[in-house]
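Exercise 7. Predict the joint structure of the components listed below.
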Amino acid sequence: MIKVKNLIKIFQMGDTELTALKELIFSIPEGQFVAITGKSGSGKSTLLYQMSLLDRPNSGEISIDENDIIALKEDQKIVFRRNNIGYIFQDYALLPSLTASENIALPMIMKGIDQQIAMDRAKESLSKVGLEDKADNLPNQLSGGQQQRVSIARSITHNPKILFADEPTANLDTESSEIILEIFKKLNQEGQTIVMVTHEPEYAQVADRIIELEDGNIIADKLVKKNKK
Amino acid sequence: MNKTNASFTVGRFLAIRDLKRSNPWTTLLIIFVMSLTFLNMVLIGGLLLGLAQGMIGSFKQYYSADLFITPSTEKSIIEQTQDITSAVETIPNLDSYTLRITTPAKVEYGHRTRTEPTDIVENSQAVLTGINFSQENEVTDLSKKVIEGEYLSDIDFNSVLVGKNLFEKYSNRPDSSTEQKLKNAEVGSVVNVVVGNTQKEFIIKGIIGTGNNTIDSRVFMVDAAAREMKNQENLDVNEIAIKLTSANLIDESRSYLQSILENNQDITIQTADEAVPGSSADITKTFKLLGNLVGVIALIVGAITIFIVIFVNAITRRKYIGILKGIGISAQAIEISYVIQSLFYALSGVLVASLFLMGFLKPYLDIHPLVLPIAEGKLAVTTNDILTRGIILIVTSLISGFIPARLVTRQNTLDSILGK
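Solution:
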């Protein structure tokens, strides 16, 4: 369960201050698939950065499973991210000198899992995203869609409590985007909590719930009516 | 697996793959720079030290031997030489000794074609040295340093061995108003040796080239002929060089000799190190200092090189480092990765340079030493030197690799990822 209370994020732009998030309050129960939408500059990525511990808000509270994550020190944040959070970047953010399977295995090795076991699990994860034959390919030998699928495999391989995705389909063609969304749907059906930022309204429809932002305020928070489970 | 172990495993995992998949030419270039840095640390110092050692070594080999007896500053000759030699012969560890009569002289060539007494002929200043050639050879192996012609026997009263520094063709220093050289004289030529008002013709039978400036500026003749040139009737000499059976017994033997001679104040007994002329000792000190200075500068250059390489690498990969932190890789693991890469570059550089030094350069210079006017220089580098300086370079490189990695991993994760 993620709880956000009175969350404020202010950016200093020279002499002026820009309030990117304005006292946001909401919670996300375990197992929910939430899409955060809004126009460019509405604050959706900023919100994701705060919830995923990549950035620190100016005030407010964020807790994940009753853990006050804002109070964590930098080293503790890294450990918390490693154990509880999966993060999918818009530009895939794969490490260029590592193969697909090595990219996926790395966080597991950091958790203390034996290297060989981590590599085996990485290959299993790759097969879940349909890339079992690309295990030894470097990122520059993969298409954008394939790289994003590797990124998803990396982010779920250590069984995170929450999966954050920042515009995961922004750089992909329609076909690749649909594959990615299908993977998200499947993961969510298996019980994975997902928080996805997207500016594509139709892609947001795959989620259980849509939170819409405008100028740092929540202007809509609604459940998506569908028969998906 | 504890936190540090996991960080080390990940650091190693990242470093190996970064090195394996980086541009091989870039890697080779960095290793080449590190090799040059290490060569700079070892080579210049080693060559300078080699020259210094060559200078001191040649003094000991061809001049002073293990113990060297000369007149005290108040005397010009070792009086009662026979008493001294009798004492020398009782040294328990005596191997051999040689006596030398010395006096300043001038060697002239072309004097036979002089038409007027005022005509200037080619000439060179020298130290005339009268020796027993067999005894001298036992102590200094001088016969092995005849570079042209042949060594003298003890009955060659009319022949001389001339040091190569007296010849223009062997000298590295050109003629000057204060120092002239023999231009056309060669083995077989008849030269005129002048000592004060005494002069006599001798045939050059050989040319000596030891690499030691003092020896190579001498003219050697049999002791009886030298005595005649000096108009000296007694058997006193100016130098006694004593070779011992073991260099470890020098101090012990000197004490023995001093006691048996009842601390004779008319002579000075020096060890080889003490007999080295003050200027040479100063040069040696200066060379050592210069060698160390060049080594320290090279070390600083090496440290800066590694710092720049790792800093540029880390700065250009800020996003990469941000991603690593974003997916839960500890800053410690990232730093270890960069430190391992620094270790690889430094170790490879040291290994390549060491192989070049010990496998090629040192053996080559042992056979073909650098010939300088002051001495012949070999490369004075030992395995210990290589190990010590190698370790210094590696440790410095590790620190130089760690600092920039630390600076970059300390930056805000999101800023790194977004490239702010």
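Discussion. The interface with chain B takes residues 49, 54-55, 74-75, 78-79, 81-83, 85, 87, 89, 93, 95-98, 102, 106-107, 109-112, 115, 138, 154-155, 158 of chain A (CB under 8 Å).
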